[in-house]
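Encode chain A's predicted structure.
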Amino acid sequence: MDGHLDPGKTEVSETDAPIANAQSKPSRIPLRFVKAAAGIAIVAVFGWLPLRAVFQTSSVEAVVNARLVTLRSPIDGKVSSGAGLSGDPGIVAEGTFILRVVNPRGDRVRLDDLRSQMSRLENERPSLVSKIASARAAQKDLARQAALFTEGRIRQLEARIAEIQTSIEAAAARREEAAAAVQRALSLIKSGSVSSVELGRLTRDQTIALQTEIGARRHLDATQVELTAAREGTFLGDSYNDRPSSVQREEEMRQRAEGLTADVAHADAQIAWLEGEIESERSRYISRSEAEITFPVAGRVWEILTAPGEDVQAGQPLVRLLDCSGAVVTANVRESVYNSLQLGSVAHFRPSAEGPELAGTVVNLTGSAGAAANLAINPDALSKEPYRATISVPALNDGSNDCPVGRTGRVIFSTDSARKP
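Encoded structure for chain A:
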């Protein structure tokens, strides 16, 4: 029974096979279409991105860059540590102290010399003031003596004038008496009572009395001149000059006191000048013996070229700082792209890491010459293409980032801005 087949069943199987195949074909056709569509979509997505990059006007390489600021030692000396050498990687504010250079062998010869001059003047000034007081006291005493002498001399001349006036009156009386005697002799000579010899004697006595009176009056005039001069402060006489010794000495003391006062004023002026010079020289000495190095711009330490305790010379580089306020993007491009660019062209920097595109502007086109700037990353490091451009990206300098120098990406240039005249 096993070897016999049922003919009915065989016929049914053969008849049913085409029907089953016909029913399975419609279910396989949509699956093939789905697979084909998915393959086309994958090819389109993964092929279009490189193709789109090829057709875009973009850079070959791009890197965030910034200028370096080199701080040099202003003096010779030894480096002492500062807060800026602690290795903090963050951005440091402008004016932050970095390190100090101290020169213990600073030249202070001029400062010491100025201080020595100041000490000498300050020591001399009290002596000058004491001499002025002594001269003033001597002048006052001599002036008192001169006043007493003047007063005594005036009284003496007044008494002499009174004496001379008395002599004049006596001489006038003798003159009158002699004149009367001559008149009597003239009246008696005719009678022979008086001889001619007696008349001659009486006439001579009259002449002598007259001249004596005249001489006394001349003496009075001279004495009055002396009195007038004495009252005006000038003394006339045969045995002394126009001023007595007390007056002359008083004048000498006055001149000496004035000279000493001038010396004190000169010393005060010298002391004031020396105070200014000492302060200025002290500031210069401090600036030559100690210098504090601070951040001239906001940024971070890029390279430390010295160490605490090291002896440095003036002008020697100490630290290189990254100027984070002037971050730019350095890019190299193909020759065709380079020739289509111009200063002011609009560009966008697309970081390699996740993040939004950053708008920028082309600020420098240097071609194969490289960027003419002191940059942290040498533009020659971008070696895939020889043509170079520098793009200013304001978003890199707004303080919201940590100065991402060295981050890579790609710069996409606006076609419209690149082709505008």
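The CA atoms of residues 204 and 313 lie 116 Å apart.
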